[in-house]
Design brief:
This protein is an all-alpha fold. It is 44% helix and 0% strand. The N and C termini lie far apart (49 Å).
Length: 112
């Protein structure tokens, strides 16, 4: 009878599982997560812009308006601020700063 030579404790590595089927395009969430991981300064800038707007007494903040402000602040040639990401950034801001929830209007997501 063969015996196993595997160590008693094996570390299990997480398997990266894309949320899209083989051969299909990445989902909006996949593209957002990749962009956010590659460009963390965008989220930090949106946090700063949101905090600045709320500090001036604003009670509502529009992420699309913040995106336009950010486009003017970024160096020429920096690309990738996809308007499709605004809702996902709003959700991330609310997740990290729940007390900002009333400042953003969110709609139910139809897709992931």
């Amino acid at each position: 009878m063969p015996t196993s030579h595997a160590p008693a404790e094996q570390s299990v590595l997480p398997i990266s599982r894309p949320s899209f089927r083989a051969g299909s395009r990445p989902t909006l969430t996949d593209r957002f997560l990749a962009f956010d991981a590659e460009h963390p300064y965008v989220y930090r800038a949106l946090e700063r812009l949101t905090a600045d707007r709320l500090a001036t007494g604003a009670t509502r903040v529009g992420l699309k308006a913040l995106f336009e402000d950010l486009r003017w602040q970024l160096p020429v040639g920096v690309r990738g601020l996809n308007n499709n990401f605004t809702a996902l950034y709003a959700r991330k801001l609310i997740e990290d700063h729940p007390y900002w929830a009333s400042a953003f209007e969110l709609r139910r997501r139809r897709t992931l």
